[in-house]
Structures are given as structure tokens and as C-alpha cells.
Specification:
By secondary structure, this protein is α/β, with parallel strands linked by helices. The chain folds into 2 domains: about 120 residues, D-Maltodextrin-Binding Protein, domain 2 (3-Layer(aba) Sandwich); about 100 residues, D-Maltodextrin-Binding Protein, domain 2 (3-Layer(aba) Sandwich). It contains 10 helices and 13 strands. A 5-stranded mixed beta sheet has the order 5-1-6-13-7. A 5-stranded mixed beta sheet has the order 10-9-11-8-12, with helices on both faces. A 3-stranded antiparallel beta sheet has the order 2-3-4, covered by helices on one side. A hairpin with a 5-residue loop joins β3 and β4. α2 packs across α9 and α2 packs antiparallel against α10. The protein is globular. The protein starts with a helix and ends in a 7-residue tail after the last helix.
Length: about 260
């Protein structure tokens, strides 16, 4: 009887491991930040981050499930095990590294301001005194604006999505939006893109903007992180990354 119990327990253990192994990797992205992640009318996700995530999953030979979530809730969601991986153009900063682990860089870039055409502002904190800049909550741009622009007398409006902030720029409710350059280029391509222009200094201070964007996982998931880095190295080398890049950008997003 004892031998039978042990055998049954062993079988159950193997079965449990098999079921766990078949569970999809839960990937989170934003879904409201074109061209990085967008939600189609049918609810499906597309965009640069989404395609990169799928390419990595194919390379790792893992079943993946990609869902959208607000950007601010991604790191708390990872820690709470609501998600396993965040592929969301998340800058690798020292502050974030205290909470999660990052893959090698998979994006470069910098941040800029966009505002209505003809504002004649140079975008420096001094020139923006008394003006209002839109920032997306939980982003590096928000941290930078609070550190550099707010003390200079610039008003900041916080938004849950870039899309909402852009609508306020176009309508004149705010003077500018601080955004990643890739997002700025995408907004310029939109139906109302001719109404706005990029301006101001190139914002890439490592203290605030980090060393590029990486893929975030929980600190304890070292094996998974190793697989992601290996897959990333492969898609960079075999042309997959470039193929995805060229669908969305007129420049190399990795630089």
C-alpha cells in the first residue's frame, strides 16, 4: 500500500509539472502606445512590441499569451505574479531595477516634445515656464518632467494614455506632450499629425531615461531571463528584428 501511494504521488507530481509546462507565458504590453502597441477594433493587439514578443516566443518555442494593461500597473503586476513578462518599451533605469530584472537592451531612442505648429518655443525648461506639458503616468518622461521642468514653473498634466494627452495638444488645452521619439513620429503620421511638430532638446539623460528599453521579468526568474536574452540575440542576428523594425520605423529603433 505504501509503495502504491508513493507511485501515485509520483505520477501526480509528473502530471502537475506537465500541466504547468503547458501553461502559456503571460506577456503584458500597453495596447495604447502606437506604434509600439495598439489595440485593433476586434480587441487583438499589434505593434512593434507585440511583434517582438511573438518573435521571442517563437524562438524560445514557448506558448505565449499577450494582454494589455496600463503602463503604471505593469511592474506591480509582475511582482504580484499577474504577468510573467513585460514587453512595453520600458526603459532600463536604476530605480526600476530595484523592483524587477531586465533583459539586454532591445530598443534605444530618446524623448522629445511635440506641440502645435508655430509655437516658437525651444523646449527648454526656462522657455516652457508658465506653459503646460502633458505626461503619461508611471513613465520616465513623467519623472524627468517633474525633476527638470516643474521646478522651472512648468505646469504638468498627467494622463493614463498618450492618446488622451495628444488630443489635448491638438485642441490647445496643453502646450506640449513629452514622449518617446518613436511615439512622436507615429503621432505625426496620424490624421491630425500635420497640426503638430517635434521640438526641444534631445532628452536622453541616463539618470532618468536609462540605457535603452528592456524586457522586464521578476528578479527570481533567472532561467526565463536567460532564455529571453538568448532569443533576443538570435532575432537581432538573423534579421527578424530588422524586419519587424522596418514595418514601423524609418530608422533603426535599436540605436
Amino acid at each position: 500500500m505504501k509503495k502504491l501511494s508513493i507511485a501515485v504521488l509520483a505520477l501526480l507530481a509528473v502530471s502537475s509539472q506537465s500541466v504547468f509546462a503547458e501553461e502559456p507565458l503571460r506577456i503584458v504590453t500597453e495596447g495604447t502606445f502606437p506604434p509600439y502597441s495598439m489595440t485593433r477594433a476586434d480587441g487583438s493587439l499589434t505593434g512593434f512590441d507585440v511583434d517582438i514578443a511573438r518573435a521571442l516566443c517563437r524562438e524560445m518555442k514557448m506558448k505565449c499569451e499577450i494582454k494589455a494593461n496600463d503602463f503604471e500597473g505593469m511592474i506591480p503586476g509582475l511582482i504580484a505574479k499577474k504577468f510573467d513578462v513585460a514587453v512595453a518599451s520600458m526603459a532600463i533605469t536604476e530605480e526600476r531595477k530595484k523592483a524587477v530584472a531586465f533583459s539586454d537592451k532591445y530598443q534605444g531612442g530618446y524623448s522629445t516634445l511635440i506641440g502645435k505648429v508655430g509655437q516658437k518655443l525651444d523646449g527648454t525648461p526656462v522657455s516652457m515656464k508658465g506653459k503646460t506639458i502633458g505626461i503619461q503616468q508611471g513613465t520616465i518622461q513623467a519623472n524627468y518632467a517633474r525633476a527638470k521642468y516643474q521646478p522651472a514653473g512648468v505646469r504638468l498634466n498627467t494622463y493614463s494614455t498618450v492618446e488622451n494627452a495628444f488630443l489635448d495638444v491638438v485642441s490647445g488645452r496643453i502646450d506640449a506632450l513629452m514622449i518617446d521619439v518613436g511615439g512622436a513620429y507615429e503621432l505625426k503620421k496620424s490624421p491630425k499629425g500635420k497640426l503638430v511638430e517635434m521640438f526641444g532638446p534631445k532628452m536622453n539623460d541616463v539618470k532618468y531615461f536609462g540605457t535603452g528599453s528592456g524586457i522586464a521579468v521578476r528578479k527570481e526568474d533567472k532561467v526565463l531571463l536567460g532564455k529571453i536574452n538568448a532569443a533576443l540575440k538570435t532575432i537581432l542576428a538573423n534579421g527578424t528584428y530588422k524586419k519587424i523594425n522596418d514595418q514601423y520605423f524609418d530608422y533603426n529603433q535599436y540605436d
